[in-house]
Amino acid sequence: MKLRRGIAVTTTEYGGVLLDEKSGSYWQLNDTSVIVVETLAAGRAPEAAVDRIVAEFDVERSEAESDVAELTRRLVEAKILSP
């Protein structure tokens, strides 16, 4: 997976923001979503994002897997990520 060209990611003290530089659309991200986006943008598998989330937050692996899969699906649907 990789971020589509023209998508900028910025982290903030509250999580992060994805900006579509072409359309001007943006999406706010919480801390775990930032981990997912950064991990996938670096060319790593969704499982690597799950590993980071489980290591950094008090969450069950199954919940992290479900959340990562859902976010990944939504980002692909929005054409932010390309498989």
Report what the structure shows:
There is one protein chain. By secondary structure, the chain is an alpha+beta fold. Helices cover about 45% and strands about 25% of the residues. The protein is built from 3 helices and 5 strands. A 3-stranded antiparallel β-sheet has the order 2-3-4. It has a two-stranded antiparallel ribbon with strand order 1-5. Strand 3 and strand 4 (about 25-30) form a beta hairpin. The chain is globular, with a radius of gyration of 12 Å. The N and C termini lie close together (about 5 Å).
Strand order of the largest sheet: 2-3-4
The coarse silhouette is globular
> What is the N-to-C succession of helices and strands?
EEEEHHHE
As an assembly, this protein is single chain
> What count of helical segments does DSSP give?
3
Binned strand content: 15-25%
**Structural class category:** alpha+beta
Low-pLDDT stretches are none
Distance between the termini: 4 Å
E-strand count: 5
Q: Give average pLDDT, whole number.
A: 92
**Alpha-carbon Rg, integer:** 12 Å
Q: State the helicity in percent bands.
A: 40-55%
Q: For the report, how would you describe the main beta sheet?
A: 3 strands, antiparallel
Task: Give me some keywords for this one.
83 residues; two-stranded antiparallel sheet; 3 helices; 5 strands; globular
